[in-house]
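W.,

You were right to be curious about this one. When I first looked at the sequence I had no strong expectations either way, so I just let the prediction run and decided to look at it fresh. Below is the sequence, 376 residues in total, followed by the output.
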Amino acid sequence: MRERLANIYRLGVKELISLRYDLVLVLFIIYLFTVAVYTVSTGASTEVQHAAVAIVDEDHSTLSRRITDSVLAPFFQPPARLTVNEIDAAMDAGRYTFIIDIPPHFQADVLAKRQPVVQVNVDATAMSQAGIGAGYLQGILTRELLTFVQRHEGEPEWPVNLVVRAKFNPNLKSSWFLAVMQIINNISLVAILLTGAALIREREHGTIEHLLVMPLRPIEIMLAKVWANGLVIIIAATLSLLLVVQKVLGVPIAGSLPLFLAGTIIYLFSVTALGIFLATLARSMPQFGLLAFPVFIIMNLLSGGITPLDSMPELLQKLMQLSPSTHFVSLAQAILYRGAGFAVVWPEFVAVAAIGVVFFFSALLRFRKTVTMMQT
């Protein structure tokens, strides 16, 4: 047993030395966990920022001017003025995301309690901006109407006092969500690529034959690649969380970082085994890329990190329970966003570990078959 552990250690050190001299791969890893995390979290915003808005004021009253003045930056650009006849042409040309049409006699109808209608035209081709921005405009209109009515009629009595509190991300900043999710996605991508590319590189350089003539077992070669490449990813992810996410972007980490790293280690055991399995199916690096990227894209899009799992079809939800990324995203969000402890996330730990064992032994069987074919 001691000799096997020594072999696994020495082979892992060899992997680290090989990675050290692969400058392109090293720069790729650094880029993914620094620049890519920053640019995605700050550039791909789902919030409304400087949305183009126009107002058709057919009333020209104090209330309509208050509504116009309340549409402010940074959510919206200064409102442009349009006439009724210009609405259709402006929407068709896509010049404005929102056009607010305030009808004639609007203020008088409000004071007379005739319930006038304000039309908000939304260009829904910009889907996320349209949905969120329409909610912002509805809140602005409601606030200004209540303030105006209270000034003229006193404080109204409401049957329900609705209080909304946003937990875990009180400012609703998308960068808080995107930064951590980008690290999780990069962990999956790098884990698959590193281990798979390491095995393909051994085969293309002919060094796999050198290993086979040594008293080494396929499981020792696999475990060496798993721990060596997993160590690199753990270090990169930890530094990215501490330096890029917390220091540069100012995103608070609510939970235990060691608990998250423990879950990451178990997840890496699963995903690196998947990378080795895919590498045994490919005969060259281009073939491996054609196999690996569709697998990564499916894991990325359907694991719940981008689209909530509850919004997917029920059959797809059940199928994605077989993917370790689904459970890893769940435990990562629970730990880093909501400060959950092990008592909350232990089912996800067990699920990731169980799937990892299946992936590892499937890759081992395939790797042994590949080794046997190379020896004959």
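Here's what jumped out at me. The mean pLDDT is 85. And, maybe more interesting for your project: The radius of gyration is 28 Å.

Coffee later to discuss?

I.
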